[in-house]
Amino acid sequence: MKRLLKTRYASLLVAVAAVSLAGCATQPTATPPAAKAPATEAATLTAVSSANGVHEYRLDNGMKIIIKEDHRAPVVVSQIWYKVGSSYEHGGITGVSHVLEHMMFKGTEKHGPNEFSRIIAANGGRENAFTGQDYTAYFQQLEKSRLAISFELEADRMQNLRLDPAEVKKEVQVVMEERRMRTEDKPQSLTYEQFKAAAFVTSPYHNPIIGWMDDLENLTLDDLQQWYQHWYAPNNATLVVAGDVDPRQVAELAKKYFGPVKPRPVPALKPRREIEQRGIRRITVKAPAQLPTLFMGYKAPVIKTAKVDWEPYAIDMLAGVLDGGESARFTRNLIRGQQIAASVGAGYDLHSRLGDMLVISGTPSKDVSIEELETAIRAEIDRFKTELVSAEELARVKAQVVAAKVYEKDSIFYQAMQIGTLETVGLNWRLMDEYVDRLKAVTPEQIREVANKYLIEDRLTVAVLEPQAMTSTTPAAHGGQHAH
Q1: What angle do the packed helices 115-122 and 147-159 form, to 10 degrees?
Q2: Which of 49, 63, 327, 362 lies 20 to 30 Å (CA to CA) from residue 298?
Q3: 422-456 in b/e burial notation, b at 16+ Cβ within 10 A?
Q4: How far is CA 95 from CA 12, 137, 171, 208, in A?
Q5: Is 109 a catalytic residue?
Q6: For residues 23 and 482, is the Cβ–Cβ distance under 8 A?
Q7: Would the pTM of this model clear 0.85, i.e. be above it?
Q8: What is the DSSP string of 435-453?
Q9: Taking Cα atoms as reference points, which of 54, 254, 258, 35 lies closest to residue 159?
Q10: 69, 101, 178, 423: which one is catalytic?
Q11: Using CA atoms, how far apart are residues 303 and 310, in angstroms rounded to an integer?
Q12: Which is it for strands 293-300 and 126-131: parallel, antiparallel or unpaired?
């Protein structure tokens, strides 16, 4: 299982690993056709803004285009982000967003099954897709002169997807097997899924991205067709392009291919707010495993939901003090110092669409009970409520944030992903430029305030993986990700 608890300042990048990737490996079998622009009426392109090398445009069909210049190498990343993911789903169709992501590679009237992948590969590119709680995204990385090929293919499947009943049946089976491999056969993943389901009752974050097995078994072609018609529209999409490009030329190219795509009505989402928690929640998951695992989650606001705008940044800093490198408190005190934990970490994503959690997970050291580990973690949490974080600790975390912001610019994919994530969860891409300054402004007093306000039992859910004996029939752990 991938480490669920990520470093705060890399949370957007880790989102790629946390979401479900889909598809099958393919190889190019023929020379791709030349990309041709659709012959339809002219669309209107409007320049919205330009700042710090980022340029925003909008088409009259509602599609947003955001372009990030990075001229260090003659490559380009193109990403299409749709505002739909597992948090948009309702009971009975969970997993539909992820299954539809699979089906987006199964062809249109113009391009046959898996031809999308073959064309991109034949042009020296790579591509894939990922589904998250709050979005579904498709991406290609190509030499910059091949960008038109990406646009032609994406515009085609945005409006002309062909849902073949046989392919649907096959891909649902693929996703069901994916669920078995990644969740049901992995005790930590199974525990984490049930932990989330216990923590969130009415919030759609209750449901796993991959869906519940019963819903997958009963998913229909009509479910997928309706989901595609509801959400896959230019007025529900953001095109993000990053790389060695001329912004105006890219915008005009996008207008040529995406401009003729007709907008469609997009359903209005109901709030589906989480009910107030009125006491600690505890669950135990029994599964064949070698080691016990502890998950603790404190419900907390995020940027999108916070009534006090600095609070998410203070929670982020608190998580950094706990788990921000080898000098952080968890490693220093619980792993090296008391030697209570074999591993322990904390994670918090302040860029979720809905209220989320500060999540802590850990595995106790040999001859240490899970109860002793929880007690030690609680002691570290309680310190925030009475003691002010030292200036040295804050300076260390802030220095790490600045360093991370420098290193992340090495990846044009990550730059594009930051923009796409922020825009798709309902925030503004400009927040990525404010992040460092907002964290630098956090004070020890603010960290103490959020600890006392949010890190309390009435917001806490605890899940324990209780290992059961391994048998000869216990499924072997499977690893890896599906890739196109």
Answers
A1: 170
A2: 327
A3: bbbbebebebbeebbebbeebebebbbbbbebbbe
A4: 22, 15, 12, 8
A5: no
A6: yes
A7: yes
A8: HHHHHHT--HHHHHHHHHH
A9: 258
A10: 101
A11: 8
A12: unpaired
- Give the C-alpha separation, 188 to 193, whole Å: 9
User: And the tokens for 309?
Assistant: 């705008």
Q: How far apart are CA 406 and CA 75, in angstroms?
A: 20
Residue type (1 letter), 393: E
Query: Whose CA is closest to 192, among 373, 376, 359, 345?
Result: 359
**Longest Cα–Cα distance in the chain:** 72
Reduced to 3 states, what is the DSSP secondary structure of residue 297? strand
Per-residue pLDDT tens listing for the chain (484 residues): 333 333 333 333 333 333 333 333 322 223 333 344 444 457 899 999 898 899 999 999 999 999 999 999 999 999 999 999 999 999 999 999 999 999 999 999 999 999 999 999 999 999 999 999 999 999 999 999 999 999 999 999 999 999 999 999 999 999 999 999 999 999 999 999 999 999 999 999 999 999 999 999 999 999 999 999 999 999 999 999 999 999 999 999 999 999 999 999 999 999 999 999 999 999 999 999 999 999 999 999 999 999 999 999 999 999 999 998 889 999 999 999 999 999 999 999 999 999 999 999 999 999 999 999 999 999 999 999 999 999 999 999 999 888 887 788 789 999 999 999 999 999 999 999 999 999 999 999 999 999 999 999 999 999 999 999 987 655 544 333 344 4
Of 450, 202, 173, 140, which Cα lies nearest the Cα of 314? 450
Give the list of residues 6+ apart from residue 44 with CB closer than 8 angstroms, or none.
59, 60, 255, 259
Give CA separation, 268 vs 88, 158, 230, in Å.
10, 20, 10
pLDDT digit string, tens, across residues 232-272: 999 999 999 999 999 999 999 999 999 999 999 999 999 99
Q: Which burial class, exposed, middle or buried, applies to 310 when counting CB atoms under 10 A from its CB (0-12, 13-18, 19+)?
A: middle
Q: Which helix (H) or strand (E) holds 299?
A: strand 293-300
Alpha-carbon distance of 48 to 44, in angstroms, equals 13
Burial of 320: CB neighbours in 10 Å, binned 0-12, 13-18, 19+ = buried
Specify whether the CB–CB gap between 405 and 446 falls below 8 A. Answer: no
**Residue whose tokens read 């790629």:** 16
Beta strand 20-21 with 75-82: parallel, antiparallel or unpaired? Answer: unpaired
Q: Distance (Å, rounded) from C-alpha 25 to C-alpha 238?
A: 26
What are 468-479's pLDDT values in tens digits? 998 765 554 433
Closest CA to 203 of 298, 270, 297: 270
